[in-house]
Amino acid sequence: MQKKTVEDFLRENGFVTAAELDRQALLVSFISEMEKGLKGEASSLMMIPTFVGVNGKIPEGASAAVLDAGGTNFRGAVVSIPPKISDKQNQPMPGTKGEVGEEEFYGAFAAELKRLEGKATCKKLGWCFSYPAEATENLDAKLVRWTKGIQAPAIVGQYVGKELMKRLGGGEIAIVNDTVATLLAAKATEGDKTYSSYVGFILGTGTNAAYVEKNRNIVKLPGAGQDGSMIINAESGGFNKIDQSAFDKAMDAKSSNAGFQRFEKMIAGAYLGGIGLEIYKAAAKEGLFSKKAADAIAGLGALETMDFDNFCADFKKPGRDNVLDAIFADADDAKMARRLGIPVFERAAVLTAVHLAAFVIKSGEGADPSAPVAINADGSTYYKTRAIPFDATVRRELDEMLVKRRNVHYAITPQVDDAPMVGAAIAAML
């Protein structure tokens, strides 16, 4: 009996390959969800107004004291423009090693800012605060909930900027999340170039995007007025107007937030390995592998994206044993496994391009090739994927969707080191 082809197997399980994805239909759907979110209608995209603008020139030689909190550590430093970071110090994020109260929490940040006192030219402080929070007009942030295991329940519901300034005896602060900071960091790459607008994009463990929207289009914020613009934090990983394959559904059902972040789970690093594992397990049952490989993959409980990616790229990371190299030791099994795995990364790259194209189009800018929309892309999945030339694939797709079809121009900016810190500094300066 002839084995089922890879194409038949994927199709029967509802996996739409990169070649078969309807880019235009997805673009229309994505932009529709953006517009609903801006109107305050039911949408899978939160479209959060940040009250942060991008207009104005950064004073040459300006510097700002900044904080960057969003993981197991937080950092403090002085950031000057053109981007240069000095006096940087890392320390544990309060609440990562046990529950902390208000004074211990804010005290850690206050002590770090006092260390940096007098070392920056900008009086306003910048803080990249990458936890779910509501932005306010005075660039404060009200913490909605903690993620990443932080234990500081007393802080939930507080305006963290206001509380921190109390401990410092007053002052001004500009708080942004990591995606907004990534967008602002694109301004640091301008030099003598001209950009008509900006998109900030992160594709690492998770994904999100931010872009600049005209105030008159933010219908749910009637006080925004008809003039000007501000950055919108889309929380774009939540987009759900996209069909899932049987493999996506199986992986999703095992995740900690089943049913949510559907789009993120099709492109981000936390999930690609899980999709690969579901594909391999289903393929084993269909007889696409030898019995030895099928038995081994059936017993595998988890698959990290790094191992999935390295295997598909036939890359041996020094000092790291890859479980898939052992499972698919037979050359025919390995060839089949790569043919099944690479489409996961190809699909992710095309969906990433659709994602970015939607924000560029919605900005309404980029008509002049000498003033493109700047995209600052950040994150390990975007830049470190080996299975396919990820960045090159995204650019090729954007050229087709934007430049050729719509005469809309974009530019992916050079990578900005420490983009969250640079962006937080620019928020303070602007």
> Stretches where pLDDT falls below 50 for ≥5 residues?
none
The radius of gyration over CA amounts to 23 Å
Number of helices: 15
Shape: globular
Class from helix and strand fractions: alpha/beta
CATH class of the largest domain, named Alpha Beta
CATH topology of the largest domain: Hexokinase, domain 1
Looking across the biggest beta sheet, what order are the strands in?
1-11-10-9-12-13
Walk me through what this model shows:
The structure is a single chain. The protein has 430 residues and is of the alpha/beta class. The chain has two domains: 1-49 and 179-415, 3-Layer(aba) Sandwich (Hexokinase, domain 1); 63-176, ATPase, nucleotide binding domain (Nucleotidyltransferase, domain 5, 2-Layer Sandwich), CATH 3.30.420. Helix content is 40%, strand content 16%. It contains 15 helices and 13 strands. The strands form three sheets. A six-stranded mixed beta sheet has the order 1-11-10-9-12-13, with helices on both faces. A five-stranded mixed beta sheet has the order 4-3-2-5-8, with helices on both faces. Strand 9 (197-203) and strand 10 (207-214) form a beta hairpin. Helix 2 packs across helix 12 (331-363), helix 10 (305-312) crosses helix 12 and helix 12 crosses helix 14. The chain is globular and about 70 Å long.
